[in-house]
């Protein structure tokens, strides 16, 4: 499975230092998270296939440019994945966004699909799957399976991710070897409670400014 981790520059680590800090304010977290997500999405765009596209400039000359070789859409995993939609719309406009809701059963800890809505022609598009956290990998595997059942080729899916665990990455790779993943960090490990270390907390709650009882870490 192609895995692309953003270059661990000083600038990137500075962003991580802000969004990982437990005392970072909500407004600052959102600002820096949006900045980080844009970097992740720009990397995704670099990996998509392009084709030549000529345009005429205002002075009448031709410019030999590029455009996506087929239409693009996004699918966000509700709710944390919706945090990535703002950054996406600030980079690229005029594309559909699908939704998929997957939650873990509190008893079995297994993911369960509650809702899915996709563009009718999703099988003919490249798909950016938006999910900030990849811990155990259960939700991501179910989300990809839903896309495959709708006719999307595995190699046409790019999983855009903020943090991933080695365990989740290995599980995703063994299940979908032709999937592409772009992430800003591969964490050290999962702890005994399946929380990523060093982690970031519940990304969705921190981004949207909400709290949920018993959801201090919020892994998926």
TrEMBL record:
InterPro entries: PRTase-like, PRTase_dom
GO molecular function annotations of the record: GTP binding; uracil phosphoribosyltransferase activity
Alphabetized Pfam families for the sequence: UPRTase (PF14681)
Name recorded for this polypeptide: Uracil phosphoribosyltransferase
Cofactor(s) named in the record: Mg(2+)
Domain of life assignment: Bacteria
Catalytic activity: UMP + diphosphate = 5-phospho-alpha-D-ribose 1-diphosphate + uracil
EC number(s) per entry: 2.4.2.9
Keywords linked to the UniProt accession: Allosteric enzyme, Glycosyltransferase, GTP-binding, Nucleotide-binding, Transferase
Annotated family: Belongs to the UPRTase family.
Annotated Phosphoribosyltransferase domain residues: 8-210
Function summary: Catalyzes the conversion of uracil and 5-phospho-alpha-D-ribose 1-diphosphate (PRPP) to UMP and diphosphate.
The protein's annotated pathway: Pyrimidine metabolism; UMP biosynthesis via salvage pathway; UMP from uracil: step 1/1
NCBIfam families cross-referenced by the UniProt entry: PRK00129.1
């Amino acid at each position: 499975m192609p895995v692309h981790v953003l270059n661990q520059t000083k600038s990137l680590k500075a962003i991580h230092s802000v969004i990982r800090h437990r005392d970072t304010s909500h407004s600052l977290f959102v600002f820096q998270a949006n900045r980080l997500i844009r970097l992740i999405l720009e990397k995704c765009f670099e990996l998509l296939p392009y084709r030549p596209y000529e345009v005429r400039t205002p002075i009448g000359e031709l410019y030999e440019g590029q455009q996506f070789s087929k239409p693009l859409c996004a699918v966000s995993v509700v709710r944390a994945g919706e945090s990535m939609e703002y950054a996406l719309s600030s980079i690229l406009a005029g594309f559909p966004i699908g939704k998929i809701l997957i939650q873990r059963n509190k008893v079995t800890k297994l993911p369960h699909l509650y809702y899915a809505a996709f563009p009718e022609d999703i099988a003919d598009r490249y798909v950016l799957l938006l999910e900030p956290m990849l811990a155990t990998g259960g939700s991501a595997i179910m989300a990809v399976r839903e896309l495959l059942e709708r006719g999307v080729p595995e190699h046409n899916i790019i999983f855009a991710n903020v943090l991933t665990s080695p365990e989740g990455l290995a599980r995703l790779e063994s299940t979908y070897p032709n999937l592409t993943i772009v992430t800003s960090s591969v964490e050290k490990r999962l702890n005994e409670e399946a929380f990523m270390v060093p982690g970031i907390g519940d990304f969705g709650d921190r981004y949207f400014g909400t709290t949920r009882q018993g959801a201090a870490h919020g892994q998926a």
